[in-house]
Amino acid sequence: MIFNRITRACSLLAMLLAAGAASGQAAQGTAELELVPHPDLGQLKPEVRELLQPAVEYFTQQRATLEGRALGLAYGRMGINYLAHEQQEAAGACFRNAAILDPENPRWPYLVAVHYEETGFLDKAVDSYRASLILGKTYLPGYIRLGRVLLELNRLPEAEAAFQVVLNVDPDDAAALAGLGQVAFGRDEFDKAAGLFERALQEDPEASSLHYRLGLTYRALGQADKARAELDQAGERIPATDDPLLAFVRGHTRGAAHYLDAAAEAEAAGNSPVAIKLYEIATSIEPSNVDALLRLAELQGAAGEMDEAFMNFGRVLAIEPANARANYFVGTELERRGQETEARAYYEKALETEPQLVEPRMLLANGLMRSGEYELAGEHYAQVAHQLPGSVDVMYLLGMAWLAAGECQWANPVLLRAAGMAPADRQIMTALTRAYSTCPEATPEERGKALAAARALYDVQPDMDTSETLAMASAANGEFEEAVDAQAQAIFEALKNGAEDRLTWLQENMQRYQAQQPATAPWSAGAEVYRPEALVPGPGR
Prior knowledge:
It is a single chain. The chain is mostly helical. Among the domains are: 2-171, Alpha Horseshoe (Serine Threonine Protein Phosphatase 5, Tetratricopeptide repeat), CATH 1.25.40; 254-320, Serine Threonine Protein Phosphatase 5, Tetratricopeptide repeat; 419-520, Serine Threonine Protein Phosphatase 5, Tetratricopeptide repeat (Alpha Horseshoe), CATH 1.25.40. The chain is 72% helix and 0% strand. The protein has helices at residues 2-10, 14-30, 46-62, 68-84, 88-101, 107-118, 122-135, 140-152, 156-169, 174-186, 190-203, 209-220, 224-232, 244-250, 256-268, 272-285, 290-302, 306-319, 324-336, 340-353, 359-370, 374-387, 392-404, 408-421, 426-438, 444-460, 464-476, 480-496, 503-514. Helix 2 (14-30) packs across helix 7 (122-135) and helix 5 (88-101) runs antiparallel to helix 6 (107-118). The longest helix is centred in the first third of the chain and has 17 residues, at 14-30.
């Protein structure tokens, strides 16, 4: 697999990278944030000012409210905008701050390195490239750029190791072949250098700078005619390297509107991955565009990129704290992470803004059930039932909420309606049967129907639950001998199946039946049946 080949290839640079990165990371751990020398926008070209102004205004507004990684990402986005428009001093400060605040993200030391390389601080560029490759070992463009800087510094063994990492993964990479050719040339290994330059030119015929390299190599070999032919074709284009991060930076030289239009076209064509990339550029150029951020986050969530979606919905809430869509998503992600109390606050916030939303209200009601706040859960289920009168699931949950709250006179008609909508649903029939069997307001006719239903349930599938239900219904109808027998069967099934947590409840009811008394509740307080399942982490989390 490619990943394994990359990992093996990276061992060539392990010791080289460790030395530079260790010192860089140690420095980051104690560094203070820099004061960014933001350029005076009024002194820039109008077209540059127009592109930079939205990002600068957003950063200025949000700087005081963000902290930790969120602040690091804000610095990083600002740095990308500055780097794209050649504002090097401000870009470098932003990237260094981002690397301190978001230390596990390889893109920040990488862009610090690009900044150092472009401003002539090559030794610092080497250290920063190495730091980025410690964090992102599989990012091959980083090895190419590291190798080229090492060539500039005439550090040939290190440059060779960097280019070899790339060739171990892709033996035909023109940039790496050209890099090794320069290493060979620097060692006066001209035959080897010629072969490498020729291979590189074959892989990337448009890389006209290779003609110059090859011409010099032929001249060193004494092949004057071949040297002259190559030098006549020499140009400035170096071998192309697919560098997604720098492509992302370069994309900031165009306005957000261009990328928003392109993203919409990609969506229309069903190409969500491309649309995500385009929205990322657009929202980096114009970070306060809430609609674009929402669409980006929704696409990321649909693609399973939950951490990225969570972050971008958080960016929306930093701009619009009451945004219902963002509050709803953040709530769902917090629930998946087991942070139910926090999730509840976000569901409530979403409903404050858009009370007609069904999804956050259902999740809020489910959470209230799990926390034992049954009456409040019932109020929310009732609102959803009004909006979705044909939903069997909502009717069932509403009935269960009122049962758990001890309001069986409200639960019974709701469960009866649910049973009428889904007469074959065992779960609903069990709930209705137990409700009729334990509710003081139940009529003799309802108790009789409960006993008939309980016997039918037991005949179809005799187990612990149907035995217990039959015992309840029998006792409710004065059939205490049958109730004792059925309850004994339920206790036996509990012991057989290892359900010891049910024994206390079962034995309490057994004592009631033996004393000629009916059960007083359909389930024990806090029973699992009153706890709808919470959202669980999705695949890959």
